[in-house]
């Protein structure tokens, strides 16, 4: 892969010029918006079912099956279990030769965040929660694709709308395996969205990321009766963590390293024979991520040497940095403004007012849920996503819709709570309308697609060849399994 820092993209630019899109006719807009509005109640039902399922990465069997069923009923041909992932699928609605527009759907939950749909902390006994809004992400993407397919059929529009069911976005890099298998090679443009606390079509530069688990093995012994006979795997994890924390001073600016100890033993009076640490390394430049993770691995090897233990490393994920496409961003921004923000009813407003004092301090007002924020291109997104890999092989654009109370951070109990309410449905409807209108604009004006492709080729450079950050490993279908479990 050619090393590209994308420095020119990093600067944030507020875009005020009009979009380059050919205006959709009033009839086109009306058909699409009415179809999504009519499907809004079902969107909400599907999202709530997936919210209730709360299945973690590569274990989203019921969630994936539900979305596939919705698409099949709408006339899509569905291929399940693609790219070695049982919960991944590709669904296609084709009317003839023409552009291929992809729409991404996610549906995995986060472990440890089960929460009731109330504006107060009320943990549930479940093992996971939809703290990143993927339940409504998947439901709205499917609804957008269905609306687009019906519009295509009614108006004789030739082409294909294709839904990619993508599991394990949260650390499992599901989309990477779809890209690696060449499943996007004929896609002309790809659309996606994400739950948020605001509405906008801004395009940031996410961070490239490599994640993996360091598993240490030593020798068990009685921690008091014969500690000299033991070799503590937990000691090795702790030595590694100290070494990596010393490393932080000596890595390139913008590097992020974080970890958890996922297995530290079972009983204090037993020298731990097994222990595990789960690490992430992030940076805007994929090569920096590779270099820093190699140094983290050396720290693990040194810890094993110091404690007379052994260590094995399994890379569980790896993604590129996002490659924004301004051409498509202008089109999506225009359509989001056509749709507008989220309008709450009295009950939803009361929920938001009760939740607001429990959120971190923020300048966001409750009124901002009904607004569309300015279009910005560039700037660090802070997190990482496997959508980034898609953005390097096909022009890609995304947006946010206000699913949560303004000021809500992702990966929080507050996000889970709002995600289980009608507020989430309304945000999903905004997203579905915007995705469908954007797809229709691209079908109506293929010149936009060519312009977006030219922008992609220019930004990634003439020498670019996609090489997955995960290498040739198979999808880590057990990465959410408990340590030691099969």
UniProtKB/TrEMBL annotation:
One of its GO terms (biological process) is folic acid catabolic process. InterPro entries: Amidohydrolase (IPR017439), Aminobenzoyl-glu_utiliz_pB (IPR017145), Bact_exopeptidase_dim_dom (IPR036264), Peptidase_M20 (IPR002933), Peptidase_M20/M20A_hydrolases (IPR052030), Peptidase_M20_dimer (IPR011650). GO terms for molecular function: dipeptidase activity; para-aminobenzoyl-glutamate hydrolase activity. One of its GO terms (cellular component) is cytoplasm. Keywords: Hydrolase, Signal. Residues 210-304 form the Peptidase M20 dimerisation domain. Residues 1-21 form the signal peptide. It holds the Pfam family Peptidase_M20. This is Peptidase M20 dimerisation domain-containing protein. It comes from Phenylobacterium zucineum (strain HLK1). The lineage of its organism: Bacteria, Pseudomonadati, Pseudomonadota, Alphaproteobacteria, Caulobacterales.
